[in-house]
Amino acid sequence: MSRRSAPEVLSLVGDREDVLRHVGLTGRRKRDLAEAMALSRSTLDRAIRELADAGLVERGEEGYARTLCGQLALEEYDRAVRRVEGIVSGSAVVGSLDAETAFDAAVLAGADVVEAKRPSPQEPLRRLGNILERADHADAFSPAIFPTQVDTYHRRVVHDGLTANVLVTGAVTSRLVSSYSDETKEALQTGRLEVRWTTDLPPYSLLVAETPSGPELGILTYDDTGILGFVGNDTSDAVAWGRREHARRWDDAEPLPDIAAD
Q1: Least confident segment among 109-113, 119-123, 149-153, 155-159
Q2: What pTM, to 2 d.p., does this model score?
């Protein structure tokens, strides 16, 4: 067995993925593999030799099977493929964000991606609102505000018992105080809503919601022209990232000006 670099192993798994997957964990003989995969014996021999030389398969009593390293390498390859597929499918929604924007490929892996385009340019906003409608608790931040969001938070907090920790920018704070003072005041007075403001927000809105069916992450991205799209994901990796992004900003944020008092 020869020692290979990580890029070399990843390249080998990509080139020989079909063989590595077909050998399985219990062992298969070359003859059976060749028939199942419709490969020539010479092609299969070369693939098995390369995989064995890298320590990804080994020969046993039942034939060739994946080693533990082969199994782990295949799992990491599959994970990488899912994430890159997510990046490709989500490029129209996140592609214009600055390269240094806080983001994680896990958010896009297997995600529900919706672009803001005709004939339903408001569909991304509606998708984010749908998550909030199902939530029992919400941790969120947003550099922008829309009337429908204010209405939904107000109704869900005041009438449905939703609890929420919401981070906004200074500009959004000013709008809440000046344009939505009554709604904000009533929601704050329930004790179920806490709003803080910060200058440290990326160019997207984030919502981590606890719902009866489990936690969900929703993101709404923007550019100078308005909403770009929506990304929704309920995988543990995506949700965990969203929670970290909210938590690391929450403790350093400033409280909303006191408009809740009578």
Answers
A1: 119-123
A2: 0.84
Q: Which of 99, 111, 142 is nearest to 239 (CA)?
A: 111
- pLDDT tens-digit readout, 7-25: 999 999 999 999 999 999 9
Cα→Cα distances 202→139, 197, 209, 219, 249, Å: 15, 13, 19, 11, 11
Residues 23 and 112 in one domain: no
**Tens-place pLDDT, residues 169-224:** 999 999 998 999 999 999 999 999 999 999 989 999 999 999 999 999 999 999 88
The pairing of strands 137-142 and 57-60 is unpaired
Please list the alpha-helical segments (H only) found in the chain.
6-15, 17-23, 30-37, 41-53, 68-89, 91-94, 123-134, 147-160, 170-179, 181-189, 236-250
Place of tokens 């064995």: 52
Range of the domain at 174: 103-255
CA angle 92, 209, 256 (to 5 degrees): 95
**For tokens 């896990």, what's the residue?**
106
Cα 20 to Cα 31: distance, rounded to the nearest angstrom: 15
- Residue 78 CB coordination number (10 Å): 13
Mean residue pLDDT of the chain comes to 93
As for how many domains the chain has, the answer is: 2
Does residue 111 sit in the same domain as residue 59? no
Token pair, residue 113, equals 């991606």
Using the 3D structure, point to which of 61, 77, 93 is the last residue of a domain. 77
